[in-house]
Amino acid sequence: MTSPRPAADAWKDQVARRFGAASAGYDDAAGSQQAIATRLAEQCLSRLQERAPRRVLEIGCGTGFLTAALLPALPSVTDWHATDLAAPMLAATRQRIEALGIAPERLHTAVMDGEAPTLSGRWDLVCSSLAVQWFRDVRAGLQRLIDSLAPGGLLAVTTLGCDSFALWQQVCAEDGLSTFASRYPDADRLRQWFPSASIHEHHQPLDSEATGMAFLRALRAIGADSPPPDHQPAPPAALRRAIRRLGARSGGTYHVLTVLAERPCDAR
């Protein structure tokens, strides 16, 4: 069963609504997101080969790409808690896992803001694929999740880096416009914040060579178009100029940052 959603701020409510509205067509528009989740799952499994995690917390499960890549491969897991801001995404995750024949009692879902977790207890694994960029404070949010790990537990998350959509950022800058990506961290910043963690980065191509307005529509198709609270909306005329400048070029790539952090076995 899905737990009711706690009160949240207006921006997080908007994020939840837009991802919820996109849930039905998300899989068809999110090939890049699935590729990123698959890569993260491989990194998790390489770290968990000699462990037997039982309790897992997943932040921002979406339609279940990461859940489906990891849960069947971790038979020791008895309690997988998949969470998301959007209830329709949780329903899609449950359907995906049921289709795999996974025992339903192994999967629990809850509407929850991963930046302010409400589920209690310690976790053997905390994982998340492309949800952390929706945190108001990435550093504090990630530290909170690291602190929730059981001794020997693993945090494995991907988030977007500051070089995401580089060409789109470039054409917007020519008109003095900022983009969502301007608030994303770079790998060095993450290393400063979490010196004991392993930080990796790679670039994932967009699903298609979306150009001009098609680039923005592609983001809207997956629900990823909620401007952060401090973002200044572009005047329509300036936005049209930026779209024309982008022209036949793609908006860029996803700059993916992966954080792998372990809690020492002797931690209390």
Automatic annotation (TrEMBL):
<dbReference type="InterPro" id="IPR029063">
    <property type="entry name" value="SAM-dependent_MTases_sf"/>
</dbReference>
<protein>
    <submittedName>
        <fullName>Malonyl-CoA O-methyltransferase</fullName>
    </submittedName>
</protein>
<dbReference type="GO" id="GO:0032259">
    <property type="term" value="P:methylation"/>
</dbReference>
<keyword id="KW-0489">Methyltransferase</keyword>
<dbReference type="InterPro" id="IPR013217">
    <property type="entry name" value="Methyltransf_12"/>
</dbReference>
<dbReference type="Pfam" id="PF08242">
    <property type="entry name" value="Methyltransf_12"/>
</dbReference>
<keyword id="KW-0949">S-adenosyl-L-methionine</keyword>
<dbReference type="GO" id="GO:0008168">
    <property type="term" value="F:methyltransferase activity"/>
</dbReference>
<keyword id="KW-0808">Transferase</keyword>
<feature type="domain" description="Methyltransferase type 12">
    <location>
        <begin position="57"/>
        <end position="155"/>
    </location>
</feature>
